[in-house]
From TrEMBL:
It is found in: Endoplasmic reticulum membrane. InterPro entries: EmrE-like, Sugar_P_trans_dom, TPT_transporter. Involved in the import of GDP-mannose from the cytoplasm into the Golgi lumen. Coiled coil: none annotated. Residues 110-358 form the Sugar phosphate transporter domain. The chain crosses the membrane at residues 75-94, 106-127, 139-157, 169-189, 196-213, 219-242, 254-273, 285-302, 314-332, 344-362. Belongs to the TPT transporter family. SLC35D subfamily. This is TPT-domain-containing protein. Homooligomer. It comes from Pleomassaria siparia CBS 279.74. It is a multi-pass membrane protein. GO terms for cellular component: endoplasmic reticulum membrane.
Amino acid sequence: MAGWSEKTNAPLSNHVASWSCLQKGAIFWSAEKRPSTDGLVDNIDARDSTELQELPQFEKHEPTEDAPIPLKEKLITVFWIALNTLSTLGLIFLSKRVFSDEQLKACQLMVVMWHFTATGLVLFVASRAPFRAFKAVRLNPWDMLPVCAFFAGYVVLGNLSLTYNSIGFYQLSKVMTTPCVVLINFALFRKTVTRYMLGAILATCIGVSFTINEAAKTQLFGVIIATLAFCSTALYQIWIGKKIEDFAVSGPQLLLNQAPISVILLIPFVPFFDKIPDLSEVPIEILYSVCASGIMASLYNLSQFLIIGRTSALTFNIVSHLKTIMILSIGWYSEGKILSGREWLGVLLALSGGWVYSHLALKAKQRK
């Protein structure tokens, strides 16, 4: 998101010991060569845990240069990056349009259930021939229940934040997920960061606080929901990283199991929190937006996993920050918002702090 002779008449035990060391070195190199997405907002590392199967079966005496990436592979990577960017923008703006309808605004759970259903269907198709983007595995549903409950909860809070806040503030508040992850890691696991990382986190917090102060004057409830949303997202990111290790699965494998169970978990709550809409009174263009938002949610999740595996952590980091800037710019333009000097300063501090922290986190990971 770098890798880091023996004489033929030597005793056999020396050869065995040497080969054992080579195997250990190969395992270390294989486990470390893949980039990480630690410190990035809204990213869950979705790589297969099959490093041992990828070990070289022979000893390389001389280092060889990496083969150039074929043009076809480059074009495929560009396609998935473009699809991920467009699906991210589409999901946010379509969801905002859906929740602008008064009836659908009261159907938060049902909209989330539709997104989970669409995501599950697309991931299921992607795991089958001829695509085979990943290998589907079946996990114990009982073991999945706590994960799915937390997953559904943080997604619902995210949608509520989008409903009751402007697109710009919704997106900027999500930048606070990274500082929240750092704080929780320190409080629970005593994990520390460098003073430079701490300075970047402080800049992010100050920047977001400038925009929160402006937003709180008119939408205090939205600010509270946004705070709950990024705190729950941070908790989920920390927990899901541990669960991926415990279950020994990749991101898409876990999500394929999560999606249907999460839908089932939400069904009993629908009569208490949602109002069944009269679809005949909902404008047809809004209904089209509902359908399209589900498709965008599924394409977003699928492309997210694929570009993580095809790009470096730095590339993925750049794409993530570019998406944030695009969402903020388009959101403010569509809403006709004119930022004050204080808000401009807050945005610059928040984005710069997030970028610097992510860059430092990547460098720290590469040195391990």
